[in-house]
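Technical note accompanying the year-one report. For the benefit of new consortium partners, we illustrate the data format agreed upon in the data management plan: each record pairs a sequence with a structure-token string. No post-processing was applied to the example shown here.
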Amino acid sequence: MSEEKVRKEEFTISGEKLVSTIKKLVREGNIRRIIIKNKEGKTMIEVPLTVGVVGALFLPTLAAIGAIAILMSECTIVVEKVEKAEEPPQAE
């Protein structure tokens, strides 16, 4: 049985790069949640991601993120990534 470990990464980008960065993160596939904060640290949007959220299902959220990006010159993205702990080898 494997355990999941959640790791948070936080980085600051310009508003104009927000949508492309989010698309890249979603393609990585091991993202549990994305939180976008303004430069004062206030959460603007929090997007929980489940396995298989891609394509048309993610488009409305991406449109909302794009609207937020227009209003922000700088933002912080907090990414929760899921890492599976490796299982110890089993004796035969």
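Partners are asked to follow this layout when depositing records. Residues 29 and 52 are 8 Å apart (CA to CA).
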